[in-house]
Amino acid sequence: MTTWEYATVPLIIHATKQILDQWGSDGWELVQVVPGPDGNGLVAYLKRPREGQA
Asked: Residue 38: its pLDDT value, please?
């Protein structure tokens, strides 16, 4: 059974692609993007298999 680790990442509007590309190259998969807690920014939720389970 695969177990996952998760990360939440604040997204800077002018650098969204670069931020997601960097996390993606580290093996993270984008799950969802939602408005930030203040309603102005965005937060990305990412996941990847725990080490040794890829």
From this structure: 85
